[in-house]
Specification:
The complex is a heterodimer. By secondary structure, chain A is an alpha+beta fold. Helix content of chain A is 34%, strand content 29%. Chain B has a five-stranded antiparallel β-sheet. Classes of the chains: A alpha+beta, B alpha+beta.
């Protein structure tokens, strides 16, 4: 899940942007930092991932998408300002989340938060997270977290976009106030 | 009887009038005249055996390895010019390593086979380069499909997947022997013995130099990693093969006596 605010200074350039980019059928990337940088990264990863999927003949694994994104973020760490979260579903590892913060390190994690608004909700998510939550509980967790971040952070706002990825497919929705 | 080539065989960049590239065919000849390499994809793994010709009695048995590990889950055996083969192995290791770095997963066997095929083929389309005088047998495990696989890569760049394959001097008779086996039931341990027997059968005591058996395998027992077969299994196969050959000779003698 993510908010939808893109700002240049105090001006909100786009209040309904989509910060959850699809990399493949069941692999998505949450983007934060410079929009230009993260869009470029997601375009590259999408390209490499599709070529890879053709070569292997199967849907790519989430860890492959994460490895590709990490390579780009780390090799170009001086030029980029991008914190991304790669998440998705594959038949080998099930649902997985990988977080790639500013320096280009890649960490497999049970859950991740990122972006300017995330600094205000670390305590909240650490308190609320439980392993093995149901879909409804997960949605509530994400929605609450993003809401609280949007409340305190000037650079976060707009609508909340949620993407639910599972073995059965992908479900996109958005929540307004 | 191969045609002479007569002017069309000076460079890999020249086709002959009947559509052949002689330099690549000559490279294949280099492989055909080398020690036999046999690979079998058994029910429970892949086994590769090499007839390692001992050029000198002074050589350590473990030197001049014809088998090599490319990545934990895949390995190769070389037939043909050893130095050319080493180059292919080096490239395979680079490919496997960089693939895992970039994509975060072990290189799938069919991707490795394709990459090596492209690499070897590259050397057949340049006038300044010569084709590899080595063929490579690739044994690998696909972690996603959970299957073990065997590929053969020829000097012309073609890389095909096999149930059983043979390269080198004894390949013709080895191939017909492999076809007689039931590969759906054959176990790796049994295959080691059979391969040893095939190598001994095709080895001509009077004409060929002395040789050693070198075996490597990839199976459940090795946790799907490519490893040298332990020396006692090799010795066991060696002894069994020799005995089988003696028995066969005795049978032939008995037949002669009877008639």
């Amino acid at each position: 899940g993510a908010d939808s605010r893109v700002s240049t200074g105090t001006y909100i350039a786009n209040r309904v942007s989509d910060k959850v980019s699809g990399l493949h059928d069941k692999i998505f990337m949450c983007r934060s930092g410079s929009a230009a940088d993260t869009q470029a990264i997601s375009d590259y990863v999408r390209h490499y991932l599709s070529t890879h999927a053709l070569e292997v003949g199967k849907p790519p694994l989430v860890k492959t998408a994460a490895a590709l994104a990490k390579r780009i973020c780390y090799t170009n760490k001086e030029q980029l300002l991008a914190g991304v979260i790669i998440a998705g579903y594959d038949e080998a590892d099930g649902g997985s989340v990988y977080v790639i913060p500013l320096g280009g390190t890649c960490l497999p994690v049970p859950f991740a938060i990122g972006g300017s608004g995330s600094t205000y909700i670390y305590g909240h998510v650490d308190n609320q997270y439980k392993a093995g939550m149901s879909l409804a509980e997960c949605k509530k967790f994400v929605t609450e977290a993003v809401t609280r971040a949007m409340a305190r952070d000037g650079s976060s706002g707009g609508i909340i976009r949620l993407v639910n990825i599972s073995a059965d497919g992908v479900d996109r929705e958005y929540l307004t106030v | 009887m191969a045609s002479t080539g007569a002017g069309y065989d000076l460079s890999p960049t020249t086709f002959s009038p009947d559509g052949r590239i002689f330099q690549v065919e000559y490279a294949t000849k280099a492989v055909e005249n080398s020690g036999t390499v046999i690979g079998i994809r058994c029910a429970d793994g892949v086994v590769v055996g090499v007839e390692k010709v001992m050029l000198s009695k002074m050589l350590l048995p473990s030197s001049n390895r014809r088998v090599a590990t490319v990545a934990p889950h895949c390995g190769v055996a070389q037939a043909g010019l050893a130095a050319d083969g080493r180059q292919v192995v080096a490239r395979a290791r680079e490919e496997a390593d960089s693939y895992e770095d970039t994509f975060g997963i072990p290189i799938p066997p069919k991707v490795l086979a394709q990459r090596l095929g492209e690499y070897v083929h590259y050397f057949t389309i340049h006038g300044a380069l010569r084709p590899f005088g080595a063929a490579t047998m690739v044994a690998a495990y696909d972690d996603r499909e959970k299957t073990h696989q065997l590929y053969v890569l020829e000097p012309n760049g073609v890389c095909l997947r096999y149930f059983g394959a043979a390269l080198g001097k004894g390949r013709q008779s080895a191939k017909s022997e492999i076809e007689k086996l039931d590969l759906t039931k054959l176990t790796c341990k049994e295959a080691i013995k059979q391969i040893a027997k095939m190598i001994y059968t095709t080895h001509d005591e009077s004409k060929d130099k002395p040789f050693l058996l070198e075996f490597a395998w990839l199976c459940e027992e090795t946790n799907w990693t490519y490893q040298l077969v332990s020396q006692d299994l090799v010795d066991e196969a060696d002894a069994w093969a020799k005995k089988e050959l003696e028995d066969d000779d005795d049978d032939d003698d008995d037949e002669e006596m009877a008639s």
